[in-house]
Amino acid sequence: MHRPQRAQQSSYRRLFTKLAVHRRTDVTDAALGTLLAFIAGAINAGGFIAIGKYTSHMTGIVSAVADDIALGALGAAGIGLMLFVAFTAGAGCSAILINWGRRNFRQRQYVYPLFAEALLLIGFGAAGLLQPGTFVAVAAPLLCFIMGLQNATITKISGARVRTTHVTGMVTDIGIELGKLAYVSRGRAGGHHPVVANLGRLSIHGRMVAMFFVGGIIGAVGFGHLGFGFSAPLAALLIAVVLPVILSRRSATTI
Predict the structure, then answer these.
(1) Cβ–Cβ < 8 Å for 121, 231
(2) Would residue 11 count as lying in a domain?
(3) Is pTM beyond 0.90 here?
(4) How many domains, the chain?
(5) How confident is the model at residue 196 (pLDDT cuts 50, 70, 90)?
(6) Residue 46 covered by a domain
(7) Res. 33: pLDDT tops 80
(8) Burial category of 83 from C-beta neighbours within 10 Å (exposed 0-12, middle 13-18, buried 19 and up)
(9) Residue at 80 is within a domain
(10) What values do phi and psi take at 22, rounded to 5?
(11) Dihedral angle computed from the Cα positions of residues 130, 134, 135 and 137, in that order, rounded to the nearest 10 degrees
């Protein structure tokens, strides 16, 4: 193997071990966001295969609740409201875990919600395999909770620059930057600043949408063939992200 290839692989390994550290950079935020977008896509599409529900699409869920109420389908509206509450509760849980970690174990503050997501995915897979019939009733709220947990976690980590389950927002940002790129700027003519596209933001959101799509394909295939058990490799990815921080001696320092 050539030295440049070895150096590149070593660089990727170093980056992977820093995805959950508390000192953030644009690079680690983008890398973590891309990985979580892949997992979100897999859970969302795979969850539909497993239980017949998309669990990250709050816009659709809220719209469906409104339609169901208007049509008098109060039972369906109640289910949609339950999914909305579960997603919101997951986001709230992320905020609690991060703020608790920030006050008690600062170096591990982002580990807790990511590790919680991994445990919930393991529980989802185990419960689904053991009791597939009765578990379906609570599977959708659980996946919504997981999606809310993940989306809030990357939102807080990145300072609201990245949201992994909110594809509408990412596509909107892509459109904005493409519009800037296509706009013929005439410098400071008329006292206006030149219009310049943020190519970094365009690249990040483009990669995240692509990884959400790829994750959706893999999740649909995985859940379609393995059922609930496919949540195990997704949980393993999250555990691999948090383990370097958990095992780090510096991260054990209490603040």
Answers:
(1) yes
(2) no
(3) no
(4) 1
(5) confident
(6) yes
(7) yes
(8) buried
(9) yes
(10) -80, -25
(11) 170
